[in-house]
Amino acid sequence: MNQFRKYARFIVLFILFGMLIISFGLWGVGDMLRMGGRSTEVAHVGGTRIPLYGWVGGAAISVNEVRDQYERQLEGIQRQTGQRPAPEQALRFGLHVRALEEVIQRTVLDYAIQQFGLVVGDDEVQAAIARNPAFHGGSGSFDLLLFRNRLQQARITEAQYIADVRREIAASQLFGVVRPDGLAPKSLRDDIYRMEAERRVAETIYVPDAIVVDVPKPTSEQLAAYFEANKAKFQIPEFRAFSYVLLTVDDVLPQISVTPDMLKQEYEARASQFGTAEKRDVDQAMADSEDKAKAIIAAVTAGKSLEDAAKEVLGSSDGVIKLGSVTKKDLPPGPLADGVFSLPVGVAPTPIQSPLGWHVVRINSIEAGKSVPFDEVKDQLEKELKAQQAPDLLIKQVTDFERMLAKTQSMKLAAEDLGLKVRTYENVDARGQDAEGKQVVIGPAAHELVQAAFATRESAESELLETPRGEYFVVRTDRITPSRTPTLGEVEAKVVEAWQTEERRKLAEAKVKEAVEKANGGASLEALAKELGLEVRTTRAVSRFENDQGNYLSQPVVQELFKLQPDKTQSVRTAEGSVIVRLKQVEAADLAKDKEALDRFGTQLDSMIAGDLVLQLIGALRTKYGVSVDEEVFAAAFRPQQQP
User: Fold this and answer.
1) What torsion, rounded to 10 degrees, do the Cα atoms 245, 249, 254, 259 define?
2) Which residues on neighbouring strands pair with residue 461, listed in sequence order?
3) Could you tell me how far CA 581 lies from the centroid of its own chain?
4) What residues have CB less than 8 Å from 475, skipping those under 6 apart?
């Protein structure tokens, strides 16, 4: 009976445990255990997905990998442009999608390298890194400190970079079958080169719309019909009146006092910055012992030059090193720098010992340093000291203002309590312009003020906001005047002007069309230009990728030029006129004369085709292994953070 109870208890526990496993699978607890409570896997390459369990095999791509690649893209843009894209802008440009695709491609490569059994040894990786000239110091060899500094600047860890190099070497083996040499057929190479190297000369006439001066005024019927068809052009935008409090560094500068003693202390602390340091033109001979150094000095004392003395003692014609014009800070600190800058002109009577060896020094000339008097830099120092203290004072003022806002729930009352100025703008549109189109919102935080005013409801106040330049402000939208469609009487002058502008354009285009027809009928451009009261210009020879703006060859005109047959004419519409263009001359490429350029082009074309083939191979590998993206996890990873 006891044995039966023992087995029965075991069976019951087994069934319960099995039910728990099933329920864990149904509710996704297996994933929770593997992912620490939430899924961080955004994509998967290869492998097999088992329902209720997850992936078996393949390679996972985590959210962190994609976000890290995304951050590196933002930092790269910031290094190139000096500005870091705002999160909304970066997402709008699809940088997060690009980051995901780059990580997927990298993972596909890693997975393919693993599947093909390609192994790259550590020695091969180290040798590749050591050969990279970007990590070579002044001696021309690998510099470990420079290597680490470069990686730090690029925000890449050593492990990441080593993995990238290993991947690159393995990929070159994987795709070594793609040889770029001779991929492009000779006929294709020649045809494309002819097309790209061909140059054309044109004759042009610029016909501005303003050539038409006798535009009639519209009749009442024409004006009414035009207004009815183009009401959107004359829509009166929404206007807003708003008041605001703006806190900037410039506002707190007058509150900062700098004493004469503070200025004097700053001047003395930075004395080296106000002037030029002493410079000395220095040569030196290096010896590995004190006796040799003294022997060189003795030979110089006996009448020999430092060069001859060094050659005699050291046995080398390269014994004297010319340091050139140096300041004290250019030399290693310690005995050498102190010794060199305490000597008179000439060869030092005693050698100087440093960690590098024994130095025999010759001072060729001394250029005395110069200092700028205190009175000349006093104003500059005062401005700089104030600028150093201003941010802290601004933050204190902002903190006090924010505290008072929370207490009074009123921008105006908070400003009055702290003695801050409340400024106002009456009736501006979303561009900060008045009803006449004049820009009235100008100065610090102008764009942000208007943006906040149009994001705040009437009779309400914004939160305390900060601009990217460190300005702080609160806006109160005092009044909203909704946008509306005006009556014809309100905007009649603008409607008449718009109708005449359009009519002038139509009449000018009719003149251009007539001129083009005459030109294609055999009339000379000179005669047509004279008839129009304009001038003909002859352009320089341009390729299809060049411009000649001075002679009216913008890119749209160039594109039309390369469609024309010789002596044929066409017109191209520009912003405020048209360009009449005639093909005068074609300068065809001479393949025999351009043999070197043709060969270089062929090499480039081969490389482009090879690159395209490699991309196709990567695409095929991606299809072969399969790539699964969790769109929900990806979207959540880059969803803008909600403000509390």
Assistant:
1) 150
2) 476
3) 38
4) 242, 243, 244, 449, 452, 453, 456, 461, 462, 465
Number of Cβ within 10 Å of residue 154's Cβ equals 13
What is the rounded (10 degree) CA torsion for 251, 257, 263, 266? -60
One-letter amino acid for residue 191 of the chain: D
What is 109-126 written as a DSSP string?
HHHHHHHTT----HHHHH
The answer to whether the beta carbons of residues 50 and 59 sit under 8 Å apart is no
For residue 604, the SS3 value is helix
| Greatest Cα-to-Cα distance within the chain, rounded to the nearest angstrom | 123
What is the length of the chain? 644
d(CA 142, CA 126): 10
- Output the pTM of the full model: 0.54
Grouped pLDDT means (10 residues each) for the chain, 644 residues: 38 37 34 42 90 85 90 82 80 90 91 88 89 80 79 79 88 79 85 92 95 91 94 92 94 86 80 78 89 90 89 77 85 87 92 87 89 81 83 90 93 94 94 92 92 94 90 95 93 93 94 95 93 94 93 95 94 94 94 89 87 87 92 86 43
**Encoded tokens for 157:** 């860890």
Q: How many CB atoms lie within 10 A of CB 28?
A: 13
Query: Using the 8-state DSSP alphabet, how is residue 209 labeled?
Result: G
Rama region for 567: left / alpha / beta (φ>0; ψ in -120 to 50; rest): left
Q: What is the DSSP letter of 435?
A: T
Number of H helices, E strands in the chain: 23, 21
d(CA 579, CA 575): 10
